[in-house]
Write a structure and sequence with these properties.
Belongs to the TRAFAC class YlqF/YawG GTPase family. RsgA subfamily. The protein is of the alpha/beta class. The protein has nine helices and 13 strands. Strand 12 and strand 13 form a beta hairpin. Bound molecules: guanosine-5'-diphosphate, magnesium ion (MG) and zinc ion.
C-alpha cells in the first residue's frame, strides 16, 4: 500500500476470491476476509461459475473478474445447443431424490455418468421416508445402484425430521464441497436450510448484494457448512435435461460401474455391447447375472443418442 495514492489514482491490485453465487452475468465473489463483492466478468467469453477461484480487481463498489484459475473439477451438461457448467471445484455431487415426485431413473443414470466422467464422487439420497409406500417402492428401484457400489442414503427432512438420518449424511459432507442437484420438489431447499440454519438469511443478503430483489432466488449459491473443515454445499436449481454430448458413446460403459466390471471380457475388443456375439455385459444381464435389464436399455438409448449427435 502506497500512502500517496488517492482514490482512483491507479488501478486497484488484483486479489484472490471465490465465486459464491451467480445470477445472470453477475457474480458474487468472496474475498479472503469473507467480504462479498458483486463482480462482472471481463469480456464476453469468460465464464466464471460458483466454486471458481478467481483473480478480481475492485472498481468502484464493484469488481471485475480478471481471470479464472484452473479448475480441479468441473461438472457440466452439454446438449446439441449449449454447454452449461453447473459448478467448479466440487468434490462430490449429491443427487437428491424423493419418494415423491417419482424420480426419473434416466436422469439419475445420466447424472451419475456425468459425475464419474468429471472425476467427481456421486452420492445418492432418497428423501421423504415418511411418504409410504412410495418411499419403499423408490428404495427398491434403487437396488441396482446399491449393488453397483453407489452410496444411497435414506432421508426424512420434512415436518417430522429424522435427525439420525441427517447426521449420517452430514458425516459424508464433512470437509468436502458438495453440489446438490435434484428435481424441483425433492427437498433441496429444505436440506440446505437444515444444514446451514442461516441459509435463508444468506440467500436474502446475496439477492440484495446482486441487486435482484428479495424474492429472486439466485441460480446457484455456495453455503459454508461451518464444520471447521472447509466443507460447503452448493444449491443449484432443477435437473433439466442432462445432456451428455461431451462423452463419446464408446466411453459410456467405462463410466457405468456395473458395466465397467466386465470391461475387456467381450469377444470383440471394440464391442459396443448392443448386438455383438460374445458380449460379456449382455451375458451378465439378469437373471443370468447382476446387471439390471433397464440399465442396459438406458445404455442403448444413450449410446444411440450420442452416436446420432456425433453424426451431425
Ligand atoms: N413429507 C415430506 N415432505 C418433505 C420432506 N422434505 C421436504 N418436504 C417437503 O417437500 C416440499 C418441497 O421441498 P423443497 O425443499 O422446497 O424442494 P426443492 O424444490 O428441491 O428445493 C416442501 O413442501 C417440503 O416441506 C420429507 O422428508 N417428507
Ligand atoms: Mg428449492
Ligand atoms: Zn460387449
Amino acid at each position: 500500500m502506497t500512502a500517496d495514492r488517492g482514490p482512483g489514482a491507479a488501478a486497484a491490485a488484483t486479489r484472490d476470491g471465490l465465486v459464491v453465487a451467480s445470477y445472470g452475468r453477475h457474480l458474487l465473489v468472496e474475498d479472503n476476509d469473507g467480504t462479498r463483492i458483486r463482480c462482472h466478468p471481463r469480456g464476453k467469453r469468460q465464464e466464471a461459475v460458483v466454486g471458481d477461484r478467481v483473480h478480481w480487481r475492485a472498481s468502484g463498489d464493484e469488481g471485475v473478474i480478471e481471470a479464472v484459475q484452473p479448475r480441479r473439477t468441473v461438472l457440466f451438461r452439454q446438449d446439441a445447443v449449449r454447454t452449461k457448467v453447473f459448478a467448479a471445484n466440487v468434490d462430490q455431487v449429491l443427487v437428491l431424490l424423493a419418494a415423491e415426485p417419482v424420480y426419473s431413473e434416466r436422469q439419475l443414470a445420466r447424472a451419475l455418468i456425468a459425475a464419474r466422467h468429471a472425476g467427481i464422487e456421486p452420492l445418492i439420497a432418497l428423501n421423504k421416508r415418511d411418504v409410504q409406500p412410495a418411499f419403499d417402492e423408490a428404495w427398491a428401484r434403487l437396488a441396482p445402484y446399491r449393488a453397483m457400489g453407489e452410496t444411497v442414503l435414506p432421508l426424512q427432512l420434512g415436518d417430522a425430521p429424522d435427525e439420525a438420518l441427517l447426521a449420517a449424511l452430514q458425516q459424508r459432507l464433512h470437509g468436502r464441497v458438495t453440489l446438490v442437484i435434484g428435481a424441483s420438489g425433492v427437498g433441496k431447499s429444505t436440506l440446505v436450510n437444515r444444514l446451514v440454519p442461516e441459509a435463508q438469511a444468506q440467500t436474502q443478503r446475496i439477492s440484495q448484494a446482486l441487486g435482484t430483489g428479495r424474492h429472486t432466488t439466485t441460480r446457484t449459491s455456495w453455503y459454508w457448512l461451518r464444520d471447521g473443515a472447509g466443507g460447503a454445499v452448493i444449491d443449484s436449481p432443477g435437473f433439466h435435461e442432462f445432456g451428455l454430448h461431451h462423452i463419446a458413446p464408446e466411453a459410456l460403459a467405462h463410466w457405468m460401474p456395473d458395466f465397467a466390471a466386465y470391461q475387456g471380457q467381450c469377444r470383440f475388443h471394440n464391442c459396443t455391447h448392443r448386438q455383438e456375439p460374445g458380449c460379456a455385459i449382455r451375458a451378465a444381464l439378469a437373471p443370468h447375472g447382476p446387471i439390471a435389464p433397464q440399465r442396459w436399455q438406458l445404455y442403448v438409448e444413450l449410446y444411440d443418442e450420442l452416436s446420432a449427435a456425433r453424426a451431425h
